[in-house]
Design goal:
The longest helix has 11 residues, at 3-13. A hairpin with a 4-residue loop joins strand 10 (190-191) and strand 11 (196-197). The protein is built from 12 helices and 17 strands. It is an alpha/beta fold. The chain has 3 domains: 3-67, 434 Repressor (Amino-terminal Domain); 74-131, no CATH class; 132-341, D-Maltodextrin-Binding Protein, domain 2. The protein has helices spanning 3-13, 18-25, 29-36, 44-53, 58-67, 147-157, 170-178, 241-249, 264-273, 283-288, 313-322, 325-332, and strands spanning 74-75, 78-79, 89-96, 99-104, 116-119, 124-127, 137-142, 162-167, 184-187, 190-191, 196-197, 208-222, 232-235, 257-260, 277-282, 292-306, 337-339. Mean pLDDT is 88; it is low at 67-73. The protein is globular.
Length: 341
Amino acid sequence: MTVGENIAEYRRRRGWSQQHLARLLGVSRQTVVALEGDQRLPHLALAVKLAAALELSLETMTASLQTAEDSPPAVSVTWLHGTAPLRSGPAVWSMVREHLIAVPCSSLASVGHPDCWWDAEAQRLIALPESRPPERVLLVGGCDPFLPWAKEAFRRQHAGYWLEPVRLSSQAALLALKAGQLAAAGTHLYDDASRSYNRVQPFLPFDICQIPYLQWEEGMMRRPPTASPPRTWAIREPGSEAHALFYRQAPSGHDADIIVIPSHQGIVDSVVSGTRSAGVGLGSLAVLAGLEFEPWATETYEWIVRAEDQQADWFKRWQSALHAPGLDAAYKRLPFVRRVD
């Protein structure tokens, strides 16, 4: 049974007219006619509405897409970090070094355009209608909380291409780059031996290009007044520079509880909601949230790519977006951060 036949069958079971279903979905009757006649397939948002209206699970709706004669087959894919998600859900994809890499939408730095649906029970990835060509989706990873700005600059400059930043610690981003699962990794790791940032070449088994991007202040943030010692410290996960900075710089002898939060914005939100909590994170975010900030370190955030990729078309598009005038202007308005060229 085709997708359209399934829609028509479930509609008739409820005694609904095509006009009634159209009103429930917020579309025209002509759209319902086209869907039931298999003249078009529903995009993800419309598939979600159809599943709700017809009282079907989204997995069932996706399965019907899979069984349609003209629907794409299940896709062979490598997941970021190499482990498939335990739960079904939407994902984006990208072609990285001739391998198809998938990332759950929940791991992205901002809302992404789903390209596929992961069916955890069947252990298969299903291409969705209106999915993007994976070779036109650029996958990068890092912890810069303003990466969504770069994504928007990329969209404005390069129609028909997309940037999807993944929210990762510096170490996790470098590991993904090493495994061939990212085009570029953002890092600001401190090397104790050399007392410098981003000494990552010995860690990577290929020649690299290091691109200085930002210089920012990182340190302690607290809600005013700050006279009492904190009862709770919010810090990033192991593998992040904020985590390492806490153990290098935090006051000795503290007996506060420690909670681990996997994003810079999450640290800010935790401190804002706590009456006697402190966090380790970026000064720019702290000031924007009205928090007191004590700088502990001036850090350089760099992008790491394979040296051979500097001639690739995606690299040139990405570099032009990172230096878009609007993006430069946005960073200039931030406290405790500046662009590095």
